[in-house]
UniProtKB/TrEMBL annotation, chain A:
CDD domains: TM_PBP2
Main location: membrane
Transmembrane segments: 17-39, 84-108, 120-142, 154-176, 197-218, 260-282
Entry protein name: Carbohydrate ABC transporter permease
């Protein structure tokens, strides 16, 4: 699609100008909410009520951030979102590691050790990507109770692993399909076993798809709210639930700057991942949706 | 140990058998792949299919605070059909879903086409367009709630510029609040559609476009008649993913409007949660969850059908 437009004529130049105009307007639409959020989070309350959204902070202060982190009320408690921020990490890290490991082994078994019915097994598991989670909420609540892990971090980790492996299996399966079978067949003839072939042949080339899977799972689980709100207690809540509680706690004056600081805190980890590894982030989003 | 066992077996079998691609049947190695998959299959059968069935069973009972197994047939479904709040939620989903999908497609495809014109700083622009997708819908809701706040947000800002009569108080207006959900959701997801389309555009063979140019076709015409038809699979995937996001929308409603004013912005997802978890109506909540599943299947089945067809024909 290169060189579709030539640049010589005045009409073409006007067209170029319009093109950049529209693109920059669009960029403003996407970036301004973040800018406003950031600016509001460092303004004192007096400046917020006196000024407007886009007025620059006159006396920037980090008080809203420290308040959001350690003092703001989330429901009945006033300990800020800091503890919940670490809660989220305590849930996300094990859930990502476990679901990615299982997904890798599944994808490997489904592509390099095909057996009668393996495609059916894949289709069966894939369906888990599509269900609306409302349909599993009530049975899940009861099952977690039976297992004795309701409202615990372990319970949330289990939920995220269970509903994450459909995606991770899809990622790894689609990646391993593209790895030539010759090496694997040769290794099999040499007598190498299931795990040995995985360890020596597949794993060394899996770095890109591991990154995709880890990033996808990390963002999904970090940003989760439904499972978090349904299956957690006050001390095991993820940060998204705490943020929502903080914003909806109505005691005294609404501190919008603290709300925005808390929102920034909840958003930072996934934003950092996106900025550092945007390419892989996009690949995860588009995996399975753009076919070659 | 594990590795030496099949080695012995292979050497013992005639050469041709090796080509049968797996180690001799019966050994542990032949069963390992299945053993590795077994837990996932069990999890899927229990937590996905079992739970769906379980919710369906609950939807046939009179369960309120706690699940009970006192069956009342399809009574909960007829209660649901007679429930005004459910109809508000379903109508909202139609409005929200259609607008969300159509606007995202329009903005996403437009931005992708514009970005495809050898733009300087394309990478930076792409990064800006797509970053909202990395945020939680809760964060999006909190930010937009602030922007849409009539006293301190966009309305107040424009009024302070001298446009005293400017009104943008949709979030407090029961008739307009549903459109604030559309705005926030489009803000979050349209960059993603742009990325899908851009990937699709980059995959198109240059020579088709060159040929159309030589024939003297204008640029808009080339895009409409030549490029867009090539992107049909992308459009299809995008619609499918967006519709899926729309049906599952829960967090955004909770954070942005809380379903209000009143229940003016309820969606089936928030309806289900409210009835099953806070209003002690487990039976009714389950029935609404089953209808949500039905909605997803109604979108998914045609999609999978066409996928399988195109794979066979392709």
């Amino acid at each position: 699609m290169a060189n579709v437009i030539r640049r010589q004529t005045p009409a073409a130049r006007l067209f170029r100008g319009l093109l950049y105009g529209v693109l920059i307007l669009a960029a403003l639409f996407y970036i301004l909410p973040l800018v406003v959020m950031l600016m509001t989070s460092v303004k004192p309350l007096s400046e917020i009520s006196a000024g407007s959204l886009l007025s620059l902070p006159q006396n920037p202060t980090l008080t809203p951030w420290t308040k959001a982190w350690g003092e703001a009320c989330t429901g009945m408690r006033c300990e800020g979102v800091g503890g919940y921020f670490w809660n989220s990490f305590a849930i996300v890290i094990p859930a990502v590691l476990i679901s990615t490991t299982i997904g890798a082994l599944n994808g490997y078994a489904l592509t390099k050790w095909r057996f009668k019915g393996s495609e059916l097994v894949f289709a069966l598991m894939l369906f888990g990507c599509f269900i609306p989670f409302q349909v599993v909420l009530l049975p899940m609540a009861q099952t977690l109770g039976w297992l004795g892990i309701s409202s615990s971090r372990a319970g949330l980790i289990l939920v995220h692993v269970v509903f994450g492996i459909a995606f991770t299996t899809l990622f790894f399966r689609n990646f391993y399909v593209g790895i030539p079978n010759e090496l694997v067949s040769a290794a099999k003839l040499d007598g190498a076993g299931f795990f040995r072939i995985f360890w020596r042949i597949l794993l060394p080339v899996s770095a890109p798809i591991i990154v995709v899977s880890v990033i996808w799972q990390f963002t999904q689980i970090w940003n989760d709210f439904l499972f978090g709100v349904a299956f957690s207690a006050h001390n095991t809540q993820p940060v998204t639930v705490a943020l929502n509680n903080l914003v909806n706690t109505s005691t005294g004056v609404r501190e919008y700057n603290v709300d925005m600081a808390a929102a920034m805190i909840a958003a930072l980890p996934t934003l950092v991942v996106y900025v550092l590894a945007g390419k892989y982030f996009v690949r995860g989003l588009t995996a399975g949706s753009v076919k070659g | 140990m594990r590795d030496s066992l099949p080695m012995k077996n292979t050497s013992a079998t005639p050469l041709g058998a090796g080509a049968k691609r797996s180690t001799p049947s019966g050994g542990l190695q032949a069963w390992l792949p299945r053993l590795v998959l077994a837990p996932s299959v069990a999890i899927s059968l229990f937590f996905v299919y079992g739970f769906m069935l379980w919710t369906f069973v609950l939807s046939l009972t009179s369960s309120r605070m706690l699940p009970s197994y006192d069956f009342v047939g399809f009574g909960q479904y007829s209660r649901l059909m007679a429930n005004e709040r459910w109809w508000v939620a379903s109508t909202n989903l139609m409005i929200f879903g259609v607008l969300f999908v159509v606007i995202c497609l329009a903005i996403g495809s437009l931005l992708a086409i514009l970005l495809d014109q050898k733009i300087r700083q394309e990478g930076a622009l792409r990064t800006i367009y797509l970053y909202p997708m990395a945020l939680s819908f809760i964060v999006t809701g909190v930010v937009w709630k602030w922007l849409l706040n009539p006293q301190l947000g966009i309305q107040a800002m424009v009024q302070s510029w001298g446009f005293e009569s400017f009104r943008f108080d949709w979030i407090t207006d029961p008739d307009m609040a549903i459109y604030t959900l559309v705005i926030a959701a489009v803000w979050q997801a349209s960059g993603f559609v742009m990325a899908l389309f851009l990937a699709g555009l980059r995959g198109i063979d240059d020579s088709i476009v060159k040929a159309a140019q030589l024939d003297g076709a204008s640029l808009p015409r080339i895009y409409w008649r030549v490029v867009m038809p090539c992107l049909r699979p992308v459009v299809f995937s995008a619609v499918m993913i967006l519709a899926h996001i729309a049906i599952k929308s829960f967090d955004l409603v909770v954070a942005l409007t809380g379903g209000g004013p009143g229940y003016a912005t309820d969606l089936p997802a928030t309806f289900m949660y409210a009835h099953a978890f806070t209003r002690a109506q487990i039976g009714l909540g389950s029935a609404s969850a089953m209808l949500m599943l039905g909605g997803v299947l109604a979108i998914l089945i045609p999609y999978l059908y066409s996928e399988l067809r195109s794979r066979k024909h392709g």
